[in-house]
User: What shape does this take?
Amino acid sequence: MLTRREFLAALGGVGVLATGAHGRAGGQTATQSPEGGGQGGVGGVRTTMSGPMNDNAYRPVERPPKPGARASMTAAARDELEHHLHCQCGCTLDVYTCRTTDFTCPISPAMHQDVMRLVAAGYSGPEIIAAFLAAYGERVLMAPVRRGFNWAAYITPFVAVAGGGTVVALLMHRWRQAAIHRPPPTPVATSTLQVDATPDELARLEAAIRQDDA
Assistant: This one.
């Protein structure tokens, strides 16, 4: 039977072993965390509201302030700009929507801070988009760049609609011209009934009709 002193000593030994195991597990986790594709990452892959998220996907987008820089746009215009930037956390949302709906995402707030700094540094919307393209590539855009095949895919629906409208307009013009130049219908010939009777016979016929009507 264990004495009270022996029991406390054994309990202390278990605590030391547990602490050591936790430290080793923590070190192993830090060592085995997956490497991200960008700079400035603060962790590895984890699960959030949007699914698996790679914290290392964030890449700082920095530019020196322009001389005498002033904010290049309003907050509303800045938010509209963020609708065109794809959050890199792994979701399908733009930066503005992700940062205002998924509060577990650390990527969209970081990208938002980059946008705010560039706006304050005097950079215009196209210049900010170009800076993000340089850091992330075309995957940072919510819509593909309009050039080459992407440009053809973008304008094809508009060309189809315009072409269809042109065909309809030509057909309507042709039908209208055909209706204008169509000859008028031939009137139906009417013939006068010829009665082979003498005036005296006609007078007697008229008198008989009047008598019947009376």
